[in-house]
Amino acid sequence: RKILARMVSHSELRKLFCSADAVCFDVDSTVIREEGIDELAKVCGVEAAVSEMTRRAMGGAVPFKAALTERLALIQPSREQVQRLIAEHPPHLTPGIRELVNRLQERNVQVFLISGGFRSIVEHVASKLNIPSTNVFANRLKFYFNGEYAGFDEMQPTAESGGKGKVIKLLKEKFQFQKIVMIGDGVTDMEACPPADVFIGFGGNVIRQQVKDNTEWYITDFVELLGELE
């Protein structure tokens, strides 16, 4: 990784956060307490094998697309199973996220959800936070007419390693945002900065040591960011 020529001071990072045009959140283990793919594996009865793969993928040990393909091949989720997951085991919002998103939106900051998880689950989360579905970037599952699993849309930027950075670059080009903040728990989130201008590591649900050790600004509670916006 390239080392920044000059370390940005903490007060500068805070200023950047408070003056951002857009804030992008990772979803699994950041905005929600669970890992969506592990919850789907539970519903489909292959939890243990899949959560081990997730752990390796989140630590950066396996290329993202390979890990996603491998896990989905094991899970083979049907449309009905995905719907059942949302209906019977809806994701739990992380404490403080609703208030933080509200506060950002009140300040006319655009809020985006960028996830390596699945669009059907992420859109459900977005609706709880009053984030329009046009501000959701996530992977799309594909199903046959009978509802059986048919793969995933490999053309989505979020299906690739480095996909979150690609989405942020796209947002800058499309909306002319000057300052984008990325917030997340994983290595894929940290690697999205740059093109994000600031990365804030989040350890409120799970602490990924590699992220904690390599992040200038690391928080374990969204209350800290709410305080910055006072």
TrEMBL record:
- InterPro entries to which the protein is assigned, alphabetical: HAD-like_SerB, HAD-like_sf, HAD_sf, PSP
What pathway does the annotation place this protein in?
Amino-acid biosynthesis; L-serine biosynthesis; L-serine from 3-phospho-D-glycerate: step 3/3
What taxonomic ancestry is recorded?
Eukaryota, Metazoa, Chordata, Craniata, Vertebrata
GO BP? L-serine biosynthetic process
UniProt keywords, alphabetically: Amino-acid biosynthesis, Hydrolase, Magnesium, Metal-binding, Serine biosynthesis
Q: What is its EC number?
A: 3.1.3.3
Cofactor(s) the record lists: Mg(2+)
Reactions catalysed, semicolon-separated, are: O-phospho-D-serine + H2O = D-serine + phosphate; O-phospho-L-serine + H2O = L-serine + phosphate
> What GO molecular function annotations does the UniProt record carry, in alphabetical order?
L-phosphoserine phosphatase activity; magnesium ion binding
Which sites are catalytic?
Answer: D26 (nucleophile), D28 (proton donor)
According to its UniProt record, which protein family does this protein belong to?
Belongs to the HAD-like hydrolase superfamily. SerB family.
If you read the UniProt record, what top EC class would you report for this enzyme, in one word?
hydrolase
Name of the protein described by the UniProt record = Phosphoserine phosphatase
